Amino acid sequence: MKEKSRPRLSKALTGISGLDEITLGGLPRGRPTLICGGAGCGKTLFGLEFLVRGATKFGEPGVCISFEESGHDLAMNVASLGFDLEKLQRTKKLVIDHIYIDKSEIAETGEYDLEGLFIRLDAAINSIGAKRVLLDTPEALFAGLSDVGVLRSELRRLFGWLKEKGVTAVITGERGVGTLTRHGLEEYVSDCVILLDHRVQNDAVTRRLRILKYRGSTHGTNEYPFLIDEHGISVLPVTSLGLTHGASKERISTGIAGLDDMLSGQGYFRGSSILATGAAGTGKTTMGAHFVDAACQRGESAILFAFEESPQQLIRNMRSIGLDLGRWVKKGLLHIEAARPTAFGLEMHLVRMHHLLAEYKANVVVIDPISALLPGGSAHDVHALVLRIVDFLKQSGATGFFTSVAVEDDMQSTALSISSLVDTWILLRNIEVNGERNRVLYVLKSRGMAHSNQIREFLLTPHGVQLRDVYLGPGGVLTGSARVAREAEERRELLRQRQSEKDRQLSVKVALRSLDAKIAELQAEKEARENQLIAAIGENEQQKAALLAERDSLRRSRGMIDSSGRSPRPNGRESKP
Amino acid sequence: MEANSISSRPSRAQNRTHDLRLYVAGSSPRSLRAVQNVKRICENELAGKYSLEVVDIYQDPRRATEDQVIAIPTLINIKQAPGVLRRLIGDLSDTSVLRKGLGLLEAGPA
User: Fold this and answer.
1) What is the arithmetic mean of pLDDT over A245-260?
2) Are strands B74-77 and B87-89 parallel, antiparallel or unpaired?
3) Residue in B closest to A65 by C-alpha
4) B57 and A111: CB-CB below 8 Å?
5) Residue A370 and residue A258 share a domain
6) Same domain, A221 and A259
7) ipTM score
8) What pLDDT, in 10s, does the model give residues B69-106?
9) What residues in B contact A110, CB-CB < 8 Å?
10) In CATH, what number does B13-101 get?
């Protein structure tokens, strides 16, 4: 049973939800993997799920060598997770061997080895052709036997033997002080080490998993929260490594006409993630409510996670701006899920979201506010949280709208941590000026669409949110009554402009008219001159005719002219006038 | 399994004070030493009052599981007498521990 030489590391899918993603395909096949962690962190369950999934999903039978609990106890413990160990044993898919050492009834005399363990393991593996092995936890041997030297060398031999046998093994180990395991199992298992722990943070427990080492393979290196529920272990990858979710071209309304206009007139992309950040009282919840309302009007299903208000309170408050969310709840289109953020650990919140999303098949999800989930959380925590939520919403095709409370001075750090995660980011701000506080919003970014670069003031009216144009004054943006004053001034200005326009038109008309008059006068003069010209020409002709007549009569008198009246004209000179 | 068991001296069950079972791994030196050691002391001090079964786990791994054997060699006292340890592990080379384990302390040489 020599290990075959492989050009590439072969992996065995664990079937544990999420783990195969972060390990890029499971645990190293044919090699041992160490799972370490403190008491109650889920090591045994991890190992058992690895065996059960292997047997049921991948056709790989498994052997469990339990050093701590009997087969019956194990079966009882995991029955609540839907694992039927007894049935698996009956159908030859699983062998459980409980190794029990009672130190009080043992005396050691002389040399020994653990050949019995090897033989039992070998017999169990061969009996069902097992491909997977769980040793939970061999460290118990140290409590039962006193010769540490023998134990160490035998454990080293055991892990070598497992490799030679070609089984994919999971070995659990209890976390020691300053070491991964109390008895240094990590010295012998060098291929893959996974660390589990659970931490109390703000009175809520979060379980986390981290891959410390995975020889010969890339892997996710972060700490991944995981949870144990009725479906077994689910690791929640901080990010799905594939980024393969589809991208819809469909646009859906924000529920606020002015905001739709700012987003090239059509609103958000379906399936995108929208973040609205702003300080207290900037209208974040209202924007979320508008979005939900618009979705329900389209007949879509929506979930609103409220971490600050009860459903009744939310419905009452939204009614004051003309949004009747209550009717959508009655129609079953809207589900408002209200809980204090401190009610559960972070992981439980995420699971509840998962389950509700599946239950209601929601198209739109609003989380108000997402920052409430991490009171005092660092920017990094918020980042990881948003990323996970964004990912699972995208995978399910739902459009997510998150609000986040941000101190305005802190905007820059929020920008750094979140900006890359959301598709559309709307900033809400309060502008304090002239003894007033007014709300403005602007679209900081919106992927894949033309969007307005304007800062817009918005009003909470009894008919919902309405956007106003923002005027720039010498001191910056004008809002509130300064804007109203400016609007009035602008109206006056317009009036003035209209008046002066009229005046100008009039004066031009007058000038035109006087020009017309001048033209008429000149015309008359011209005509007079023409008449003079004609008269002068006529006079000239008459003089000429008179001269001719005079000359004729002169010639006639000299007898130079015949009766025809024509002169014989002996030479041309004489005829010239 | 009968092939592997050695009943060194036939004795009727009601006379016996010790029913012993020794698990060994084939014919490793350590296993052979253990068999020699237990036989010697039984012959010397428990003649006619004991039975000894030697089980080779290579031949019969199932029995190792049934008897919760992991260390080899392991000597198991089937018949429990007061003050007798149930299990002895090792090649039984430490005679004083072996004697104590078999409840032979006061009978031993001072």
Assistant:
1) 86
2) antiparallel
3) B65
4) no
5) yes
6) no
7) 0.84
8) 889 999 988 876 666 668 888 888 888 888 888 877 65
9) 33-34, 37, 90-94
10) 3.40.30.10
